[in-house]
Structure formats: structure tokens, C-alpha cells
């Protein structure tokens, strides 16, 4: 098993932490992982992105030319990374803020309305976990249990009361993801 | 503190900080700069002054940091600093003083694009500065180039060991990719800081107020007004460097046994090159990867040996061509050696390296 993923969106959407939780969950399952952020001024409001690789074998490059899956949360990210998805690969996008949907027919395009759903459920802070849930529904490369363990490990203890909310968001994401 | 053998997920910069505490570092002096600020941040978070007694100090500048290293190292303590390219440029005078006065110390450079203030993105364009000394005079710094978060952790202790063995500054030459990336890491075993008695025993040359009555004061200086004495001191340094070149060369080979072409790359470029190599191997092309781990001393003999059975070498580095000259000299210009790199903070992707190899193959058949 090897999955090469790019996650991209606006700074503040939780792109980097989504990647971190995913990588952490992979680590919990004894897999090899790398997490490589674009650490530039992007973090302060522009487009942020992170490359996450989860594999059974040792990982060579943390920087890639092409991806198995692209999780794209705004239009500039979609425009930038759509051409870099491998043939037969997957794009997952949030319909909020996407003006031009992915056009490629040689890949699988999936959509979820996480931004609006999170707002309706008053779970805005867990928007990124909802998107992660959608991804894990399609590609169950790590278990929900590992993701929850990863969350617990990376959240300070004073925030552990937020764990059930995050799990709820992950499950909701699995429910609402659909083919474009 | 993490348990022994526990597998953790952390950034290269964080690994440096954890490793420093665990391998008995006495003092860290630094000034924040992207992309290495997590070293100082992590140390501040871990508060080692409460556990091992290690000093962590944010100095007023990089110039101050390196001179604190000069003082700390001069008293026989295991001291380190970290910075990124423009900050390390500021430190060069202090590093030359340390080399001249034979003071050990560890400098970490998490490189970013230059020249000048440049950019905050990854680069390897401090290769020449690191391997040629960087400051004035005939000296070398022992340069280790990690290519993973694990090596970031492992090379802290190794750096200190080499620095004290040769009484010379050692450097970990990393870059923004390795510093910012998170990977699995097992932290080195906990090693206590040396006691003053151990330091007196191991560093009889140190100026720490000990042994004055027995042998008079130790003087730490790089200044020598008599040129004959200065030449003698230089010859002593050169002898030491020759020994270091003899004994401390470190490198890694992958698929070099049957290779027709070899990629030579260090640090993050070697990771990206590995992916390019794997892709080319899948296409049936016999490509190998040679990774210098010590950039000085440079693995010239090993490259010379490999050059006798390959058609060409591609040197991939994230700069405009620096190590390529060392490779060309090592193989004595006997085979085509080409360079590929991106500049100013742009990191090449594996496909670009595959294309560069196609170019090399046209001239090296």
C-alpha cells in the first residue's frame, strides 16, 4: 500500500493539521509516513498545502511530481493541482468556493459539501475532519480508531472534550461524500 | 520526555532540539530565523534547564551566538547553535576563530535560498560556504548532510563526537525540506551531560580555570604574531584535516553495483533523486544513487572507484552547481558529469531529475 496525497486550500482551513492527523494515524498503524508542508507566507492567508505520503515501505521523496489523491479546498488549489493527479487518481473537493469544477475524465472526481454542513451542524472548527472523513470513506488507508488516537495524541488534554465532536464530523464526512 | 525506542512523528528541526538535550548538550545559543525557528522554540518548550541543566539562550544576534559558542567550547563544554543561511553567513568570522583556536562546537544550518536575505524556501546553496570553511584562512569545518528526520536526530551526537575528537567546529548542513518535514523518528538514547571532572580529564586544553597550578593557564586564541609559529600552527591543522579525510568519510550507495549512470546528491536532493531513480529503474534504466553524508571530508576516492564502471554522473543539488566541481575533480574528468538544480527556493521534483538524466544520456553513451 502506498498513497501519495496533496491537501491544499486557504490558510486557516486546517489543511496542515488534517495532513498531520492523517500522518499520525498512519504512524499509529506502523506505516511509513512523511508530511511536507509548504511553509512559506502561504500560512498567513494565502494558499496552504501539504504533501502526505503513507506507505508500507520506506518513502523516498517527500516532494512529488504527481499524486494519487488531491484534496482541494479552494479554486486556486484546484487549478494548480488538477493536472498533477495521476491517471485513475482521485480529486476530492469541497463545493464551497469552487467556481469551476474539475474537468478531467481520466480521474475520479468526488465532492462534499463540508463547509455548509459543518456550519449547519455548528461544527465549523471540525471542517477539516469532515473532509478527512470523506477521504477515508473512499480510501480507508487508516482506521477511524487510529485517527481518533492520533487526534488524542496531538490535542492538548484540555481540548479532549472536543474529541466526540471530531468523530461526529468524520462520520458525517463519510456520509456526505459523493461522486461529482 | 519521550520513552526509549518510542517511534515519534516530528519535524527535522524538532528532532534536532530533542536530540541536543538527549546527547548531553551543555548549551544552545541561537537567534530565530525561518526555516529553523522550531529548534529554539522546541528547546524553550522542553525547558531542559530544569532537567539536564542545559542552558538555552536566545542571543541578541547570530554574531553573539557563535561567539558564545567560542567561549563555551573553549571551556570544554558541548555547545551548539542553529540558524539558516543569512544567519550562518554572519557567523563565519566566529567559525574561523574557532577553527583557528581549535575549539569544538556544533553549528546547524537549515538552508534557505540566497544570496543575501534571499527567500525562506529550501536551498542547498551554502555548499561552498560550508565545505570551504566560509571564513578567512586555511581551515575546514566537518560537514554532515542529513537526508531524513532520523538523521537530523542522529547527527547531533555524531557532530559533537567529531567536533571534540578533532577539536574543530562541526556543522549539520540541512535545508528547509528536512527541517520542516515530519517523519518517523526514534530519538537517541539519553546520555548525561559530562561532569566538570570528565571535562577536565577529556579536555586538558580547555580554559576553564582548572589545572592552573599544575600546568599554568591554557590560552584559547587564533592570533599568532610570529609568522613562523603561525605556519607551524597551520601545518598542525592541515595534518589534522588529512587525518579527518582519511578516517571520517561517510557516504551511502544505492543500486550502484550494476549502474550505468549514477546520480550524486546530498540532503533533501538525495531523497527526491531516489524517487527519480526508482522511476527510471522501473523503465529498465540502470541508475544508481551515491549520497555523500560527509560533504567535508568529501568521498572522492569512492566516486573515483565508481567512475571506472559507469558512463556518466548526474549531480543533483538545489543550487546553481557547487558539489558538481568536487565530483568532476574526484573522477578526474574521466567521464561526463552534469549538474541539475533549481534555484532561489524552488525544489526540483522527481520528473525534472528524470529529464535531466535523459540529457546526460545523450552525451554519455
Automatic annotation (TrEMBL), chain A:
Report the InterPro entries cross-referenced here. Answer: 2-oxoglutarate_synth_KorC (IPR052554), Pyrv/ketoisovalerate_OxRed_cat (IPR019752), Pyrv_flavodox_OxRed_cen (IPR002869)
**Any idea which GO molecular function terms this record carries?**
2-oxoglutarate synthase activity
- Pfam families assigned to the protein according to its UniProt record, in alphabetical order: POR
Keywords for the protein's UniProt record, in alphabetical order: Oxidoreductase
The broad enzyme category this protein falls into is: oxidoreductase
Q: Which residues form a coiled coil?
A: none
Q: Where is the Pyruvate/ketoisovalerate oxidoreductase catalytic domain?
A: 11-175
UniProt-listed Enzyme Commission number(s):
1.2.7.3
Q: What is this protein called?
A: 2-oxoglutarate ferredoxin oxidoreductase subunit gamma
UniProt organism field: Alloprevotella rava
From TrEMBL, chain B:
Keywords in alphabetical order = Coiled coil, Oxidoreductase
Organism the protein comes from: Alloprevotella rava
InterPro entries in the record, alphabetically?
2-oxoacid_oxidoreductase, PFOR_II, Pyrv_Fd/Flavodoxin_OxRdtase_N, THDP-binding, Transketo_C/PFOR_II
For this protein, the Enzyme Commission number is 1.2.7.11, 1.2.7.3
Pyruvate:ferredoxin oxidoreductase core domain location: 259-353
Entry protein name? 2-oxoglutarate ferredoxin oxidoreductase subunit alpha
Q: What lineage is on file?
A: Bacteria, Pseudomonadati, Bacteroidota, Bacteroidia, Bacteroidales
Pyruvate flavodoxin/ferredoxin oxidoreductase pyrimidine binding domain location, by residue? 18-237
- CDD domains to which the protein is assigned, alphabetical: TPP_PYR_PFOR_IOR-alpha_like
Which chain positions lie within coiled-coil regions? 220-247
Which Gene Ontology molecular function entries are recorded, alphabetically? 2-oxoglutarate synthase activity
Amino acid at each position: 500500500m502506498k498513497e501519495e496525497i496533496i491537501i491544499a486550500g486557504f490558510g486557516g482551513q486546517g489543511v496542515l493539521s488534517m495532513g498531520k492527523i492523517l500522518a499520525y494515524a498512519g504512524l499509529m498503524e506502523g506505516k511509513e509516513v512523511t508530511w511536507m508542508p509548504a511553509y512559506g507566507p502561504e500560512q498567513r492567508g494565502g494558499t496552504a498545502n501539504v504533501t502526505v505520503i503513507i506507505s508500507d515501505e520506506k518513502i523516498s521523496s517527500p516532494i512529488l511530481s504527481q499524486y494519487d489523491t488531491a484534496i482541494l479546498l479552494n479554486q486556486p488549489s484546484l487549478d494548480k493541482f488538477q493536472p498533477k493527479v495521476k491517471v485513475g487518481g482521485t480529486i476530492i473537493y469541497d463545493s464551497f468556493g469552487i467556481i469551476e469544477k474539475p474537468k478531467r475524465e481520466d480521474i475520479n472526481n468526488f465532492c462534499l459539501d463540508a463547509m455548509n454542513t459543518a456550519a449547519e451542524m455548528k461544527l465549523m472548527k471540525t471542517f477539516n475532519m469532515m473532509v478527512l472523513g470523506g477521504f477515508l470513506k473512499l480510501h480507508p488507508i487508516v482506521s477511524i480508531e487510529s485517527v481518533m488516537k492520533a487526534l488524542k495524541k496531538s490535542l492538548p488534554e484540555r481540548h479532549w472534550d472536543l474529541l466526540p465532536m471530531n468523530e461526529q464530523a468524520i462520520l458525517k464526512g463519510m456520509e456526505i461524500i459523493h461522486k461529482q | 520526555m519521550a520513552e526509549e525506542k518510542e517511534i515519534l512523528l516530528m519535524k527535522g528541526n524538532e528532532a534536532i532540539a530533542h536530540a541536543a538535550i538527549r546527547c548531553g548538550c551543555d548549551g544552545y545559543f541561537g537567534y530565530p530565523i525561518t526555516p529553523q525557528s522550531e529548534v529554539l522554540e522546541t528547546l524553550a518548550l522542553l525547558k531542559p534547564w530544569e532537567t539536564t541543566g542545559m542552558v538555552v539562550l536566545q542571543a541578541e544576534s547570530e554574531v553573539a551566538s557563535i561567539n558564545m559558542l567560542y567561549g563555551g567550547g573553549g571551556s570544554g563544554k558541548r555547545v551548539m547553535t542553529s540558524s539558516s543561511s543569512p544567519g550562518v553567513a554572519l557567523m563565519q568570522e566566529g567559525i574561523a576563530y574557532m577553527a583557528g583556536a581549535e575549539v569544538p562546537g556544533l553549528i546547524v544550518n537549515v538552508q534557505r535560498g540566497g544570496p543575501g536575505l534571499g527567500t525562506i524556501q529550501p536551498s542547498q546553496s551554502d555548499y561552498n560556504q560550508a565545505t570551504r570553511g566560509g571564513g578567512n584562512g586555511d581551515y575546514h569545518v566537518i560537514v554532515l548532510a542529513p537526508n531524513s528526520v532520523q538523521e537530523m536526530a542522529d547527527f547531533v551526537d555524531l557532530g559533537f563526537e567529531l567536533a571534540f575528537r578533532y577539536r574543530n567546529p562541526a556543522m549539520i548542513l540541512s535545508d528547509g525540506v528536512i527541517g520542516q518535514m515530519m517523519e518517523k523518528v526514534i530519538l537517541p538514547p539519553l546520555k548525561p551531560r559530562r561532569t566538570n571532572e570528565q571535562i577536565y580529564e577529556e579536555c586538558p586544553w580547555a580554559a576553564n580555570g582548572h589545572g592552573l597550578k599544575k600546568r599554568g593557564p591554557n590560552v584559547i586564541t587564533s592570533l599568532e604574531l610570529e609568522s613562523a609559529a603561525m605556519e607551524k600552527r597551520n601545518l598542525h591543522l592541515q595534518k589534522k584535516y588529512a587525518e579527518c579525510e582519511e578516517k571520517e568519510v561517510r557516504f551511502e550507495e544505492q543500486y550502484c553495483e550494476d549502474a550505468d549512470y549514477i546520480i550524486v546528491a546530498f540532503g533533501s536532493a538525495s531523497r527526491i533523486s531516489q524517487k527519480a531513480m526508482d522511476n527510471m529503474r522501473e523503465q529498465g534504466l540502470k541508475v544508481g544513487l551515491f549520497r555523500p553524508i560527509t560533504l567535508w571530508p568529501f568521498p572522492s576516492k569512492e566516486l573515483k572507484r565508481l567512475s571506472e564502471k559507469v558512463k556518466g554522473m548526474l549531480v543533483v543539488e538545489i543550487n546553481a552547481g557547487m558539489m558538481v566541481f568536487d565530483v568532476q575533480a574526484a573522477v578526474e574528468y574521466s567521464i561526463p558529469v552534469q549538474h541539475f538544480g533549481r534555484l532561489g527556493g524552488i525544489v526540483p521534483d522527481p520528473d525534472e531529475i528524470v529529464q535531466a538524466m535523459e540529457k546526460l544520456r545523450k552525451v554519455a553513451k
